[in-house]
Design a protein that fits this description.
Blueprint (H helix, E strand, L loop, with lengths): L12 H14 L7 H7 L4 H13 L3 E3 L6 E3 L2 H6 L3 H21 L3 E7 L2 E8 L14 E3 L4 H8 L3 H8 L5 H13 L2 E4 L6 E9 L5 E10 L8 H18 L6
Antiparallel strand pairs: 1-2, 3-4, 3-8, 4-5, 6-7, 7-8
Helix pairs in contact: 1-3, 2-3, 5-9, 6-8
Length: 250
C-alpha cells in the first residue's frame, strides 16, 4: 500500500505506449514508419501495432497510404481550440485582424506551427469585392511558404533546430536567416500565382513566435491599398496582437 500523501504508482501499458507515440510524433517535422516508431519508443512492432491502429481510428494520427508513414494529426489542434491558450490567441488576434482587413481591403489569416506544418487558426475575409481566402484548419508545408519561413525564423531555438534538421536545403536556411534579420517576409506566393504574401511574426510572452499574421496581397488595378501600406498596417497589427499576448519584444 502506498504511504499516506504519496502518489500511487499504477501502470497502464497501453496508455503508456499511446502517449509515448503521440509525444514522439509531435516532435517530428515529418512522418515515421511503424518500425521507426517502435525503435524510438523501445517497443517491438507487435507491441505497438494495435495502439497505432487505435490512434489512427480515433483521428490522433494519420497514415500516408503511399509511404506508410505515420503523422501527428490536427486532432491536437481541434482539442487545443477548446483550451484557453489557443482560444486566447484567436481572441487577441481577431479584432486587430478585422481592422487590418478593413484598412487595406485585403484578407488576412493567422497560422501556427503544428506537427511540422502550417495550420491556419483564423481567417478574416476581404471586405472588397475580391480577395484570397484561406480555410481555417487548412495545413501547408513549412519549407515552401512565406508563413513557414517567418515561423521558423522566430521560433523557439529548440523548435527551429528540430525542424531545420529535417531539411537539407541551403536556400531555406539562408532565407530563414534573412527573414530573422529583416523581421518579416514579403514574397510571391509559391502556390498561388498573382498573390504576394506579406507575413509578420506574432510574438508571445516567451519571446518566440506563437503564430504568424499573413496578408495574401492581391495586386490588381482594383486594389485599394498599395503593398507598402499593407506592409505597414500588417506590422502594426502583428505588434498589437503580440502586446495583447504579453510580449515584450515587438
Amino acid at each position: 500500500m502506498a504511504s499516506e500523501g504519496a502518489a500511487p504508482e499504477y501502470s497502464v501499458p497501453a496508455l503508456d505506449k499511446a502517449l509515448d507515440i503521440l509525444e514522439l510524433l509531435a516532435d517530428q517535422a515529418g512522418g515515421l514508419s511503424q518500425a521507426a516508431i517502435a525503435d524510438a519508443v523501445g517497443r517491438s512492432v507487435g507491441q505497438i501495432f494495435r495502439v497505432l491502429q487505435t490512434l489512427e481510428t480515433r483521428g490522433y494520427l494519420y497514415r500516408d497510404s503511399a509511404s506508410g508513414l505515420y503523422f501527428f494529426s490536427i486532432m491536437a489542434f481541434e482539442l487545443a481550440n477548446r483550451h484557453d491558450p489557443v482560444r486566447g490567441l484567436r481572441q487577441a488576434a481577431l479584432a486587430p485582424m478585422r481592422r487590418l482587413s478593413d484598412e487595406v481591403q485585403q484578407s488576412c489569416n493567422l497560422g501556427m506551427l503544428e506537427a511540422g506544418r502550417i495550420l491556419i487558426l483564423a481567417q478574416v475575409e476581404s471586405p472588397a469585392s475580391f480577395g484570397f481566402r484561406v480555410r481555417v484548419g487548412a495545413a501547408f508545408p513549412v519549407e515552401s511558404t512565406a508563413t513557414g519561413a517567418v515561423l521558423l525564423a522566430f521560433a523557439a531555438p529548440r523548435d527551429r533546430e528540430a525542424l531545420l534538421a529535417e531539411v537539407d536545403d541551403a536556400a531555406l536556411l539562408a532565407r530563414v536567416a534573412r527573414v530573422a534579420k529583416q523581421g518579416f517576409e514579403r514574397m510571391a506566393d509559391s502556390l498561388q500565382p498573382g498573390i504576394t504574401d506579406i507575413v509578420f511574426p506574432v510574438i508571445g510572452a516567451s519571446g518566440s513566435a506563437v503564430a504568424a499574421l499573413t496578408v495574401p496581397y492581391v495586386a490588381t488595378t482594383f486594389s485599394g491599398a498599395r503593398a507598402q501600406l499593407v506592409e505597414d498596417r500588417a506590422r502594426a497589427a502583428a505588434a498589437e496582437i503580440s502586446l495583447a499576448l504579453g510580449s515584450r519584444v515587438v
